[in-house]
Amino acid sequence: MHVSERTLPIAALQAAFGDRLRLDEPVGRLTSARIGGNADALVGVRSADELAQTVETLWQLELPYLVMGGGSNMLVSDAGVRQVVVLNQANKVEFHESAVWAESGAGLGSLARQAARKGLGGLEWAAGVPGTLGGAVAGNAGAHGGDMAGCLQLATILHHEKGRQDWTLADLGFAYRESWLKRNPGQAVVLSAQLALTPRPEAEIRAEMDTFQAYRRLTQPPGASMGSMFKNPAGNSAGRLIEQAGLKGKRIGNAQISPLHGNFFLNLGEARAADVYALIQEARQAVLKTAGIELELEVQLVGEWPQQD
Ligand code: EPU
Hints:
The chain has helices spanning 10-17, 48-60, 108-117, 133-138, 169-172, 180-183, 202-219, 238-244, 273-291, and strands at 21-26, 38-45, 65-68, 74-76, 81-88, 93-96, 99-103, 120-121, 142-143, 146-147, 152-159, 163-167, 188-196, 198-199, 225-228, 251-252, 255-257, 264-267, 300-302. It is an alpha+beta fold.
């Protein structure tokens, strides 16, 4: 695996961010899979304004960056990350009569549970979804028939040329697990978003959330993973295709394709990112051979990887 030089201008970063700058920070450990190496530089942000100022500064310095929320949909390479990691902990939340507004570092599942306590429905599908609001907007997170495209009213975005703007659903260009933001990395960042809610008896909301949770417990493995590794191909299921290719339970080192669900790749303990990557390649090749279908990653590969085909 090719390992590039560490090239970030540390003095300039120190001048810009002072105490908020952390060097050689173990970011792999912050992901839900708990896999991968260190970031050369990390800057923490605690408000949407601080996020905006930080990204603005990085654009001015022309430095590559990566905004990290819950780390639930990413695989960090063993060699770590050469970009500046911006750790988004901006999590102010405001409930309105029929909407919730929150900064992009707020946890999506937590928003759903807070809404339930207030007798506000609309986010039942999201109660068990890991990750932050910003990550959910960028990746159009979804589960149990719901998704962000189905409940988002507005997202406040910082665009590298256009500045701060409120974007509508149409501006965000949502598709299945896709958005303009995901298709154009480094061009804009989500500062906050507002989601529609509707009054609903708390007991009904809880009953639906419990049904979804029971389904997940039955079908998805517990433990450290990245969630669904691949997108479902149209009209099919990545998990079923990987099962049909005979790869459920396949293990390389301490990385394993879950014996319960073929689209979940597990860290059995100190797994190497390279082993997960080898499993990804194996699953892709096997499904191509058995079903003629090219699986597309849902998980974001972060850091240093062999050339992508
Ligand atoms: N299946 C198999 N073998 C497997 C896994 C699944 O045959 O190993 C079959 C199931 O029996 C079912 C079908 O495939 O008939 C679909 O499986 P499941 O209901 O478990 O849902 P999924 O399509 O694998 C999607 C989302 C999940 C979300 C669940 C529940 C994607 C890629 N995944 O999974 O989202 O939680 O539905 O709504 O869209 C995520 O995106 O990270 C994620 C976890």
